[in-house]
Amino acid sequence: MLDLPPDYWPIIALSLKVSAVAVGAMLPIAFALAWILARWQFPGRMLLDALVYLPLVVPPVVTGWLLLLLFGANGPVGRWLADWFGITLLFRWTGAALAAGIMALPLMVRAIRLSIESVDRRLEGAARTLGAGPLRVFLTISLPLSLPGVLAGVILGFARSIGEFGATITFVSDIPGETRTLPIAIYAALQAPGAEAVVTRLAIASILLSLTALLLSEILARRMGAGVRSYRV
Amino acid sequence: MSLSQPTVTARPDPTPPSTASTFRIDIWRSLGDRRIACRVDAGPGVTALSGPSGVGKTTILNMVAGLLRPDGGHIHVRNVTLFDGALGINVAPEHRHLGYIFQDARLFPHLRVRGNLLYGIRHLPDAADALEEMARFLGIASLLDRWPSTLSMGEAQRVAIGRALLTRPSCLLMDEPLASIDRARRADILQLVERLRDEVGVPILYVTHDLSEAERLAAHIVQMDFE
Asked: Residue A128: which of B67, B152, B182 has the nearest Cβ?
């Protein structure tokens, strides 16, 4: 279907790897944040809310610059990671995953939070009266009932990660084979003369990936919307 | 059938309640600018909690079940202290061993009827046998593989009763179990409550706004009214 020369496939593979790691690593954090925002009442909740959604509205290049400050060689978190775990994110594909994950976080939190808020809390009460403690209620009632939102969040986050450009190129630059993901490869190709064919192929590949993700999330949203609570009278 | 004195008060009982009663309850809670209070000293058998809509009957049941914390008072069921404001006792709902039948059945939508029935007894070795026996008793054996969304309200209410009974509760809390059921099916559920009372012998705290329903079922009626 998509006639790509062999040297394009590693770019797509890298994009998929970066996005999968970004979403996988961010998912527990996104769920925890969604749960806190949906269920807890505490001073500073609005501030946390705003912070979570910040990457959605701030120019990506600013997010990338903040990551550079925090996770760079001389950044507080970057130095700590290097000293204690020997991990460097700067100019590495793992750094690209971090940038993609941060940019995907607001979308993931939003989808998961809506789903948690739609869980009928009276069902949790019913489960308690049947002898289930809070942890079992969470695992057997709250979590399965919010699963459609979790899946939608994963897909949206994945799609966002595939398309991530600004924060990534600012934080980890454009290193072929290491941080040159699909959008960065397209940008790099655009800089070279006579690369229209390359750009077209890469663009089609990225459109197909995003479209698939969006369709999947739409299907899941429909299934979630199909009410499961009404009885036939 | 004896009608107990209408009791709606927050004051502690001057005479010590008899310890033979299944339900010894004296609780209150403010809800906005309203105050909901109830005193019950009755049971075994069916004890009806009657009164107009909005008087706080469901709130009382939620407090007995442990889903809502009273501002003060005490709740004893079968001589077990579930709540005592003065002593700081507040047993978690999962440790109260009460069966709560909600007005809307409240079945778990992501579990089939079988999964709903087994929810409280999964850890028991004889769960499968108990389930079978209960399904036969309630006449829901043919529904076991259905999803809750495909059940009629009457069927859902039977499943809810089975789900609660299977946990072998020390008593049942029933919140207007007939209210959302169409008229034709009400007699069935009413008969079922009578069988629970007479054959199973489980004490029931039964909330209803319908006095004739209360009089038909209950040995004691506690009338709640606006303060």
From this structure: B67
